[in-house]
Amino acid sequence: MVVIQKATVKDVSIIAPLFNSYRVFYKQESNLVAATEFLTERLNQNQSYVFIAFINNKAVGFTQLFTSFSSVSLKSVFILNDLYVDKNYRSQKVGASLLLKAKEFCKEKRYKGIALETAIDNPAQKLYERLNWKKDADCFHYFWTAN
């Protein structure tokens, strides 16, 4: 059974190894110290919300939400920036449980909704669509890199 818990800064040592693995998955160098510092800063400054998934008291996944704003609707929105499940626990409803918790939290906060972006070849798209996330066919997303 998957249990989801909202993280506090006291949980960083539990989340950091998963966060580091997430970054490695996205072709970044492993750096547990930097991952720990990043999460500590986000949680200390109330800049993100992190939910941890546990199976048998073992942390097996997480999601991280950042707040943004919609000027048009005059409401807050979440950006689901990170979702990761340990490869040994995939296909056990961990990702779905984390996404459902994020939706529930969004409703609790009375936010407009949750945005996420994913790679075109990410197989998690099937999960998003199964949980009623809608693919944006009306907009293109652009990104400018400062370096």
TrEMBL record:
Q: In this protein, which residues make up the domain named N-acetyltransferase?
A: 2-147
Q: Does the keyword Ribosomal protein apply?
A: yes
Q: Name one GO cellular component term.
A: ribosome
Organism of origin is: Cellulophaga fucicola
Q: What is this protein called?
A: Ribosomal protein S18 acetylase RimI
Which keywords belong to this entry?
Answer: Ribonucleoprotein, Ribosomal protein
Query: Pfam families per the record?
Result: Acetyltransf_1 (PF00583)
Q: Name one GO molecular function term.
A: acyltransferase activity, transferring groups other than amino-acyl groups
**Organism ancestry:** Bacteria, Pseudomonadati, Bacteroidota, Flavobacteriia, Flavobacteriales
